[in-house]
Protein 1
Amino acid sequence: MIQKIKGTMDILPDETPLFRYIEGIMREEAEKYGFGEIRTPTFESTELFVRGVGDTTDVVQKEMYTFTDDDKSISLRPEGTASVARAIIENGRCSDPMPLKFYYIINCFRHEKPQAGRSREFFQFGTEMFGSESPAADATVIALASSVIRRLGLKNIKLHINSIGCKECRPAYRDALVSYFSGKTEKLCDNCKSRLDKNPLRLLDCKEPDCKEIAKGAPRTTEKLCEKCEGNFDMLKRSLDAMGIEYVVDTSIVRGLDYYTGAVFEFIAEGIGAQSTVCGGGRYDGLVSSLGGPELPGIGFGMGLTRIVLAMREAGVADILPKTPVLYIAALGEAAQVKALAITERLRREGKYAECDIVKRSLKAQMKYANKIGAAYTLIIGDSEIEAGKAQLRNMQDGTQVEVDLDSFNID
Ligand code: ATP
Ligand code: MG
């Protein structure tokens, strides 16, 4: 028996209506906020992610699916932002009127330890906005995420915001972090020991229990913000207040990818276990220029679909009714089977959802099946019905029957 690869999933028709419903709301909301859908390749040059996501991040160091193709190192995308930044540079969009607004619903690949809410292929709704430095852009992107969450009926999700500073204030904060962690190196994991030199901010994002404990006492990003970052963070808070979006300031949020600057945020769900961040995002003002494009500020988020599904189940709002057929035709004998096919085809061409027996069930079994699939009407045809050109259309709800003409009847 060949089985699926660990950390991947099959989504069967019982569940796809829920996914489609969620995706539909994501698309509708994104478009309402003026974001256009972008589609980029599933794999890219490894270099894109090394430069875009950052070579000191877990994602790049441990989690990428990388292989060699024609002597070139290629990786399956672990996230979507770097690809979108590459695409706008490559397609000459950086001089378009600003802002540029994109969204996508994609699969991403990370070699992580599979558990509830964490898989190796996962699905993400992402948005990216380029060309505005203003906290008004941050507020808009956050409002979009929160609007999706609200429309999905999720009330047990809280918005956490923080500012991690820019290239002006980051050095001072970096120094403060280095001096804090330097006295505690023997307790840090090996990864964090090397992060201390290369990218000390990453230490705050380590998932090792000892490192997490030490990180709790570390200086806070908000203590070292420059005037501009402080002012921006303040305006973001005022904007969210004015828009009626609730949040908490949470200085433990630093985000796992290197490109973040300034405002960062997470939407965290209660009651879905350890993998509780359903959406994470922030500002990445240095990304486009680091990939060879112009200085173009950006902000965006990624929202994990599986975690949204977990949160919806937890909240009891995941029961999306599957579409049920309006008509089921039970057919007895070969001639009736052919006639049933002709009728279902006619109705389907008219946009109706009709089914007929094609597995030669007995009449009793066919009626049982019609019930199971929730057909609103049934029609039984055998030789005598074909001869008369008429049959009884039965309303399954109230049991009433009317005679209909087989070649011309219709249903609502
Ligand atoms: P985490 O800290 O949970 O690993 P992250 O910071 O690595 O998350 P991002 O790269 O910001 O996550 O991705 C955005 C969102 O995508 C996450 O908030 C989460 O909902 C989802 N996500 C990330 N990694 C996975 C995964 N391996 N499986 C399922 N969903 C994921
Ligand atoms: Mg991660």
Note: The domain at 327-405 is CATH 3.40.50.800 (Rossmann fold).
Protein 2
Amino acid sequence: MQRSPLEQQRAAYRPRVPRALAAGAGHLDLEAGPASRPVADAEEIRQQFPSAIGAPGLRFVEGDAAPVRKGPLAVGVVLSGGQAPGGHNVIAGIYDGLKEIDPASRLFGFLGGPKGIFTGVQRELDDAAIDAVRNTGGFDLIRSGRDKIETEEQLEACRKVCGELGLDGLVVIGGDDSNTNAAVLAEHFASRGSSTRVIGVPKTIDGDLRAEAVEMSFGFDTATKVYSELIGNICRDARSAGKYWHFIKLMGRSASHVTLECALRTQPNLALIGEEVQAQGTTLEAIAAQVVDVVKARKEAGRNYGVCLVPEGLIEFIPEMRVLIDEINHLLAEGGDAEPVALAAKLSDESARVFRGLPRKIQEQLLADRDSHGNVQVSLIETESLLIETVRERLGGGFKAHKHFFGYEGRCSTPSNFDADYTYTLGRIAPLLVAFDKTGYMCAVSNLSHPVDRWEACGVPLTSLMNMETRHGHRKPVIRKALVELDSPSFTHFRDARESWQVEDRYLYPGPIQLFGPAEVTDEAPRTMVLDRTGKA
Ligand code: FBP
């Protein structure tokens, strides 16, 4: 396949790994911490995961412990959910790690997401396949999918396929739901005497798969840097033209981490944070009033232009919209009519009033198909248009606005140095956990806010990330989604600074991701993560 000049240069990049891993597979030991506990609902989680509960956190250190499983090893890998930069490097890390353990080890890629496991659709990955994708964006090597492994038949089919391939390990690269699935698979396999170990890898550009022991999901850094470049360009265009407001919706199915990170990188005039809207119970009308105040103040200061960031998940945090969406979900789950007029007749009086007040297009988008987890597909709802319309109703024709949606632009970008190193390291950890006979663990790296030589390779028990939540009317064990915390250093920093960005222009122009050059520009870690971990801006 033809490669661009940058891809040719980038193929030669050798990702950096923590010191313990650089020592090599034969020179490692595994330190175990105390028994872990789920984030909540320990007793219910224990009942569902009797063999995994209480497993200790793990850390690889230099040493000479003999792995339990001697090579050659066979491992399967699957990509699950939305694309995120660095997925290919996770796979390259697994491949290199396996070959380091024993050159005769084998890696199989399940095709098209989790469905590839239970249908047994896979391909073996070799040197040529891996070398073609090192340090590239995308998931196209084996593609991804959003199918869930739910039923007893599917779980059993997975066990059978892994058994037939003789897999020592199965690595699930995915977000919170996919890693919950990995925990279920690990427990199922263990309870049926399967010798396949199941390991998860934290992936999502949304940045909402994080916890004390999981500092960041991969892909967030690159995606937010891509969006920040584009936002900076738009800020400069707005300032140059002096006549438009730009409303930019940013991906993030639920949490507003992406918006917060991009706001810190670009300092737009306004950035809405869904979690704050929810905490303060701010209605759509009240949000529009806040925007109107800033638009007017800027106009009076001679700046009839501006930039406002809108998180994709905002709609579900606005109190009256949350109630409305819950009612719609309930009606649709009961097989209700997805036609706006018919549906409005079945809503409560208050929700019917809210629904009828929405533009027809938004009504239809709220009724569109749910995803496989029963969620509204927020990426299909034009929250930015809704906001523009609500503001325009108050300001009239002098208010000229453009809408943008940045999401897909960043999900398959060439990974930043941070993500290239981080994902490769995650990949290298996975076969080591298998070799040390661990199952139901997530690969993790600690000290990510520091240079790579201070990073530590870890294993985090999946059950330690779990709590019980109600899904489709049933209580289920799930990995807790991390939302923006309003008392965190990153949010506090933003809250204290944002007023000064509203009327004056304090835009920052981050420019494109730099892969070559001085470390200050090539190796920058996510700002929100650094602030939250070190308190330093
Ligand atoms: P994951 O959590 O699976 O990584 O996906 C995140 C995401 O990129 C969200 O930001 C977005 O809402 C969603 O995927 C869109 O997915 P799709 O393109 O499948 O509708």
Note: The CA atoms of residues 138 and 195 lie 31 Å apart.
